Amino acid sequence: MSGRTGLHHLRAGGVSLVLDVADGRLPVVVHWGTDLGELTDAELHALALGVAPQPFGYPVDGPMPVSVLPEASTGWPGVRGVAGHRAGAAPSTRFAVTAVERDERPAPWASGLTVHATDDAAGLDLRLEIEQAHTGLLRLRAAITSRAGDVYDLAGVLPALPVPARATELLDFTGHQLRERAPQRQPFAHGTHERSGHRGRPGFDSGFLLCAGEPGFGARSGEVWGVHPGWSGNQRMLAERSHHGVSLLAAGELLEPGEVRLGPDESYVSPWTYATYGVGLDDAGARVHDWLRARPEHPRSPRPVVVNTWEAVTFDHSLDRLTALADAAAEVGAERFVLDDGWFGARRDDSTGLGDWTVARDVYPDGLWPLVDHVRALGMDVGLWVEPEMVNPDSDLARAHPEWVLTGAGGRLPGAARNQQVLDLADPGAFDHVLVRLDALLAEYPIACLKWDHNREVGEAGLPPSGRGAVHAQTHAVLRLMDTLRARHPGLEIETCASGGGRVDLGILQHTDRVWASDSTDAHERTAIQRWTSLLVPYELLGAHVSAPVAPTSDRALPLDFRCAVALFGHFGIEWDVTEADAAERRRLAEWVALFQERRALLHSGRVVHADVPDPAYDLHGVVAHDGSEALYAWVCTASSDTWPPPPVRLPGLSADRTYRVALDGPVRELDGIAARWGVPLPWVEAGGAVLPGRVLGEVGLAMPVLFPDRAVLLRVTPAG
Ligand code: DGJ
Fold this sequence. Notes:
With 721 residues, the chain is of the alpha+beta class. It is 20% helix and 29% strand. The protein is built from 14 helices and 38 strands. Helix 9 (523-533) links the parallel strand 30 (514-516) and strand 31 (542-546). The longest helix is centred in the C-terminal third of the chain and has 21 residues, at 583-603. (2R,3S,4R,5S)-2-(hydroxymethyl)piperidine-3,4,5-triol (DGJ) is lined by residues 310, 340-341, 385, 453, 455, 497, 499-500, 516, 519. The site of (2R,3S,4R,5S)-2-(hydroxymethyl)piperidine-3,4,5-triol (DGJ) has 11 residues, from loops.
């Protein structure tokens, strides 16, 4: 038992984390997963001894389990938790813990552990923080301070958590523009599965949440562990399994060589690495949602129905056209009008004017006031599109300050993407310039929300004049710019957008209030994009807009009811030029807007749930009130099914002992699908609904209608009797 004096049990929200900080070593995870209940000190010691790993690697002096910052000096052959070097010194670390502080943390956090350690030989101090939220969500970060007189060249900090050997299957995400967060699964085999991105943002193909779980884990079953880098710059995530029986998940910032060089007493603080656990993905995701929702800054006012001008007018701005759009949108119930790209400088297309944040006088001779007044008189508030990090070379700003444009080594301009380059916001002059311009706009106009876009990757760009990696400094500068504007304009909301959903992470969500999940407004594609984005992002933060009858991003024609039913499970909005909708379409859209407004409180506070439907043609998702009193589900078909009709589908998340009434909801009251067309009866629907206990609905389920592809129906669940 000697030396096992540093055992810590963090326990909240059904999750236990047992850490061993014995013998001056960095914390080793003894258990991360299901709640172990109250354990005495003796039981904790017995647990630590009971699962203590055998020595691994080359001969070392006794068992050297891998810590949350894995070190080569322990014999661990895999990823390094702290990587870097000084000229003439070995690159490995061997931190010795000098102090451990355990404390309660303010909500939404429950408790935290701060570990201070030092490595005299490497000349480094370490401050490691581990926090657990009330929901069981964990996060970790490390601050490294260089204490020697020369430069420590930091290559990276990568917090890692072990998962049990039974987690043999990996899930992570990939994608491209218009297809963000596409899931991919594979066995968790020996070796390293790495997802890194040098894009200056997480990217469309970001790994997003790297999960390891029991074989076949789904939405409702199978233990699953996941890590996520809460960082909006270059990212690194990996799953590593060694033949020693150790499996790790790690996530953090990806540094370019030479990007962070620490002089004497200089520090680097890693972004937070988030770690969630659950029995099924819904459970793991709920720990993130509930934590986000418990933050004091979480948006609490009803999320307004948005009308965004992008797909309706693109760059073709005119007061007449936009006021007509505002009139039509207000008529169907829109509550926020977001003026997208094209309102400023010489920005009549995407080749000019980016960076010139003054209202285009040729288009808006009296400024934005006539439009703003018109919109506000209709009862809507106003949002405005900006892209503060970027510049067209053909702009007044780039002409006046070419030195503010990020370059590659030797001053070489990176290849243009969408005719634009990246402004060096780490340069105080550039930062102040953009701040002053945006601040002036926000002071002049009553702008409720900025749609903050980011349309090119930063990959090659470096800090002028050295060409050294710029993303670390740039990312911090952008977040600082957002915070400064929000501090000066209390109540200002920000939507994060990057050519769609290229910058969606829990880091930027601490500075923003909404994500634009994808530029694909094709409801068929959106079904999957929203399903997987909502793994971390609750519906009130997830922008989802109804597009034109033929989606401009795919040329796919889709029925209005389907487009609306998909957008309902998000922060509902309209991207369609509703001036082109006929009277019947406008009436139907207005019905959906009204439905969203009626169900908004539930949609934006309830637990997000999914059924594990074996048929890939169908999806059942929904929200269940936290007290179990009501629920709303969508039964969605996106392909022709190989089963006809589908077997009963379980309705997840209801309270077992309550009795509920299930009935069709929303404008689609008559089944518009194969069932109705061919007269296939669905007795419980024909009877006007089903009344059953939650345990029956959750275990046996209900027969679902056979739908045509790209059709959806809604099921409303209310207390019976
Ligand atoms: C990309 C965004 O994703 C779109 O929604 C739109 O805002 C355009 N940029 C504007 O340039």
